[in-house]
Amino acid sequence: EEIRLFLKSVPILNGLDDKNLTSLAKNTHLLSFSNEEIICDEDERGDSLFIIVEGNVEITKKKRENEYLHLAILKEKNIFGEISMLSGFPRSATAIAKGNVKLLELTAADFRSLVIIDNWTAFKFLYEIARLLCGRLRKLDEQYTEHMTLCTAGKDKEMKEFLDFKERLLK
User: Fold this and answer.
1) What pLDDT digit, counting tens, does each position of 2-50 carry?
2) Cβ atoms of residues 151 and 161 within 8 Å
């Protein structure tokens, strides 16, 4: 019951009713992580998504050996890991606990069980995940457009040099 009530407060799950949330809650697992503990590592096999119950999670991407790019700090009620859960592809980023963190995990196997037991809940959940991914893709597209605008305006010297080099190469 406690998990269902928490799920009810997660914005991405607003489209699910109490019956749907109860079905989803039965298929999740509560996990705990300590400060700086790696939750999932970029490029490792992943088959689950996580909903943050308590604490913060830093999302990073490898730039070079031992050099990371900070992407985001996710807070309570945020979801991450959905790409690997749905696709079976390796993790696209590293997630690190910032402080003590509690997560609800939904594995791909548990999701498949949900599809069999309650396909309407699974459909609604997938729909909400698709909306989340579309929002993230839109934001990424806006950031890319802004970055390319700066590059072509000559404000990012390194990128302009790279683009000029690439253009010379293609000739």
Assistant:
1) 999 999 999 888 878 888 889 889 989 999 999 999 999 999 999 999 9
2) no
Report the mean per-residue pLDDT for the chain.
Answer: 86
* Full-model pTM: 0.79
Quick one: the chain helix, strand, coil %, rounded to 5? Answer: 50, 30, 25
* DSSP of 56-101: EEEEEEEEETTEEEEEEEE-TT-EE-HHHHHH-PPPSSEEEEEEEE
Give the angle subtended at the CA of 114 by the CAs of 112 and 118, to the nearest 5°.
135
67, two tokens:
């050099």
| CA dihedral sign of residues 13, 23, 123, 86 | positive
